[in-house]
Amino acid sequence: MDPDADLRGPGAAVTVALCGHWEHEPPCPLAPHHTQAERAEDHVVLRILFAADPSRVPDVRSRIDAALAGGQLRGPDGLTSIWRLVASAPSDVRPDEEEPARRLRGA
Length: 107
What we know:
Blueprint: H1 8-19, E1 33-40, E2 43-50, H2 57-70, E3 72-74, E4 80-82, H3 98-106
Helix pairs in contact: 1-2
């Protein structure tokens, strides 16, 4: 992403893929989730936590990957955020994410 690009764009794209729109009433219909974006040198690193029935995990991951691979989202301000997906991989919940993960499972 460009240095001045809106970091919320990729997360909003994920929310659209999982929920239909970035603004919706809770709960998330497919998988309660939380996205965190941080700049790391010339990259943006996203961490996406979600809670889903094990049978739905492949679909959730596929939707997330497709949303990020799409590389753009037009925001409510009319501006388009553009990014390039470099890599995507599942990982374990980190110790500092345990509480948010519990909340997502309870959502």
